[in-house]
Specification:
globular; 9-stranded mixed beta sheet; Rossmann fold; about 525 residues; alpha/beta; homodimer
Chain lengths: ~525, ~525
């Protein structure tokens, strides 16, 4: 075994690019991705990625250069997740729901050399690019140049510079301040994908429906994991529940992911039906409500709650279902399944700590901050050493999420650090109040924020979305909550709204709700 | 992210020790291992491993020191897989079926500082140790000293020197020559375990029966993989089919592994019955016969063929079942499932090459040698640079297995390099002849070797084990084989035997059979 480690025959760099290379080889003739009537085999997907990688090199992309995408869930978005790193580049997947100013910021901050978009978004892309001094080259994935290169260009093997090399920069959707560029390495993405495989029960006969945007943490690593195991990606033009259910039935879908809002929309749809097979549904971004868990259970779908952040390559914790839970009541199960759970099999210890980085007791009561470290944690924020140092103080990534650790080792989020309501000196967890209200059978969604109050400083205020065709009064909901919560936690004000304001990634924008309450009062 | 890579909060060394640390934390109260009436939780298993690690340090085991085991599948064997590396040591699991001379050779060659055995094997161990100039300290795992240390000693966190550090040395059972010490690293074992998890469909409610010896490639990495996902290990005192079936039923077993002989013994047993759940059976070491595949299918068990070597941490290929096979006849499926298959998800390309390391065509006909490389390939033979260099010539590990590559990317073994019969200048694959005979409904097992012949040089000779209570003549079998094989491949001699001679790891000892044919003739 002479020579350096990397040249040893017993050492191969860890990279998700290997997953497509393997599947392009051993699953050559099987369908990799479907979109409408288009089907691509794994051999074809690999060949296209290899050709686009060479083309990007031809456009001047050098090792370490950033290439941004502004694409919905189309096959090109999947192939670019391999083609861009395979050219030695770094993929910067932009959220299609951001504004022109935000896109321009990300393009400038990342120093993207190319931007790949499609006909539907090219206008948006051109607007963002036009504001830049050093604009990236714009490619249109469904245009003739890209399609010709992908179908008939010269290809070459995908290259992995090293397992520690930068693979992707995913910008946070931050509710305040500028987006931050979260850096992913080849090694981190590879290990995170194997962790997802261990938890998600995917195999080569699985079919995965893209209800979650691929630009969001590379689709919680499912871009890589589904490819790794040779399962089939099925793209969805738009998030229309009727179309989603048509595909779920017609294409034999077995797995899908989404934020609770998206999954709620799906299972509450009139098209929702039990299937002749198990549908594995993964929910993340916020805890599933008891109503959602119950509805999925009634439909015969298996719902699993995942927890993670952009900074953790998507889900690094899973509310792993214990066999002994099966004997509990629906209500008890819902409480257990709404917890964030335990670190996945590739995750270093998931801790809940006090201000001095000491673990809080496992009592289900003491609140601390969730901190994490390990291979599936970002190496830092791109070109932002200060934010990186602040987030990693003490050698652990600080999530900003407040949680308790239960005696069984499962964590349960109580709130975001900045979302706590402090009323008369008491900390009120808005999540706790939201859960109490969400338990009401007529409540579809709810968000709670602090409302300024002369006497108490703040009091909780709830914004409630009701289910279709039901009637309930604020007083009835207050009485319902009062049976479950301490008196000071019951919202003084309950406003009924059509929908909740959300970020582009589906998180409730509590700062918008806070503005509403302040405006209304002043 | 100042500082070296290893101190980065986004970098954790890859090690299977992490699996037990995690399960001891998140599955603390769940059963890790059962043996008779003994049950140990994951918290208890971790605590015991931590105490034994400290005790080994106290006995003078320093980082990199070897500690051998001579143990059957008992809980102590499982905990030592974590305790020895957790003390910074290297585990050397010895095959209990070897001779005293072989044990002495391995102890001396590895330079083991300690040897852990049990009451049943302590006599054998003492005999081996007594021949050595610098004997290791002998510990008896079911003796009072070990048990006190494990139950009440001082514990400390398991230590991972680095992911490239040596974890284990598994000695080959080589049919000729001295055993060679195959070296495993922490990184290799970790990645191989994640590969097994991706293929084996294990989850925390699975129960794994130890029908495969743990000393054999750390139980094909299931020692680590089962622990990683928080499933339950169930130990089996002896390989008695009645007892195995009792446990399979009583303990809710979902997974087990074994060589075809062991699995044949299980499914042909009178106790074998269909179960009310899926039993995943993994077969390796030799291809499953059509009879075995058919019997398992009739019982409703899912049989998967794995392929690998001691040098590849056990299975690195899997005959992955394609959904489209389901529509084929039993016979067609048996042919497909008996192939060695494709590299697993963590495996670098599995190649079949000619003498110049060029890939053979994917035609299912051209025979070449199977070569492999990557993270789940050994870093070499311990203290044997010459054998290492020979095995890794050209930067690829040479398996010595001859195979074809089918158009669908699956490999199929044709023979061992040294097991080919050359008759009248024609190469005859003994495996091909064995398969033709094994297709006969009365044949339980068969082995074919070359028989010296004045005219042809060699001719194929078969040794056949028949099923219970059946009668068939050599002529009938020759006629049966003649309908399936070229005339020159049909065995000239067929001998009926009670059983086939096997190595301690279950491989047929063809050199013994060859001796028999030569002795018989001269």
């Amino acid at each position: 075994m002479a020579g350096s480690l990397d040249s040893s025959p017993a050492h191969a760099p860890l990279s998700p690019l290997r997953f497509l290379q393997r599947s392009g080889d051993v699953w050559a003739d099987r369908t990799a991705v479907g979109f409408g009537d288009t089907r691509l085999t794994y051999a074809a997907l690999l060949a296209r990625a290899e050709r686009i990688a060479v083309a990007l090199r031809g456009f001047g992309v050098e090792t370490g250069d950033r290439v941004a995408t502004l694409l919905p869930n189309v096959p090109a978005m999947l192939e670019l997740h391999f083609a861009i790193p395979g050219a030695g580049g770094v993929i910067v997947p932009m959220n299609t729901r951001l504004s022109v100013a935000e896109h321009a910021y990300i393009l400038e901050h990342s120093g993207a050399r190319c931007l790949v978009t499609c006909a539907d978004f090219v206008h948006l892309a051109e607007n963002a690019v036009s504001t830049l001094d050093d604009p990236p080259r714009v490619l249109v994935a469904d245009g003739p140049e890209y399609q010709t290169l992908a179908a008939r260009g010269t290809g070459g093997p995908l290259q992995v510079p090293s397992e520690e090399a930068l693979l992707a920069i995913t910008y946070t959707s931050g509710t305040t301040g500028d987006p931050k560029g979260v850096m992913y390495t080849h090694r981190g993405a590879y290990l995170q994908s194997l962790g997802v495989l261990a938890e998600a029960r995917l195999d080569c006969s699985s079919a995965y429906l893209w209800t979650l945007p691929m630009f969001h943490c590379s689709g919680w690593a499912f871009v890589w994991a589904v490819t790794a195991i040779g399962a089939r990606h099925e793209c969805l033009g738009s998030l229309d529940p009727a179309e989603a259910w048509r595909l779920i039935r017609k294409r034999g879908i077995t797995h899908l992911c989404g934020a609770p809002t998206v999954i709620t929309m799906l299972v509450e749809s009139e098209e929702a039906q039990p299937l002749d097979r198990l549908l594995d549904v993964f929910v993340g971004g916020a805890p599933p409500t008891p109503a959602l868990l119950e509805r999925a259970r009634a439909l015969g779908h298996r719902l699993t709650h995942l927890y993670g952040l952009t900074e953790t390559y998507g889900p690094l914790a899973v509310c792993a279902r214990r066999p002994e839970w099966e004997t509990l009541s629906d209500g008890e199960q819902a409480v257990l399944h709404s917890r964030q759970g335990v670190g996945s099999v590739v995750t270093e210890p998931l801790r809940v700590v006090d201000a001095d980085l000491r673990d809080v007791p496992r009592d289900g009561e003491t609140v601390g901050e969730v901190v994490m470290r390990g291979n599936n944690v970002t190496i830092g924020y791109y070109r932002d050493p200060e934010a990186t140092a602040a987030a990693f103080r003490g050698g652990w990534f600080h999530s900003g999420d407040l949680a308790v650790m239960h005696p069984d080792g499962y964590i349960e989020l109580r709130d975001r650090l900045k979302d706590i309501v402090i009323s008369g000196g008491e900390n009120i967890s808005t999540i706790e109040v939201e859960r109490a209200l969400a338990a009401h059978p007529h409540v579809l969604e709810v968000a709670v924020v602090g409302h300024p109050d002369d006497r108490w400083g703040e009091v909780p205020q709830a914004f409630v979305v009701l289910r279709r065709d039901v009637v309930v009064t604020a007083e009835e909901l207050q009485q319902f909550a009062g049976e479950r919560l301490a008196r000071f936690k019951v919202p003084r004000e309950i406003e009924f709204v059509e929908s909740l304001p959300r970020t582009a990634t589906g998180k409730v924008q509590k700062f918008v709700l806070r503005t509403l309450t302040r405006t209304a009062r002043r």
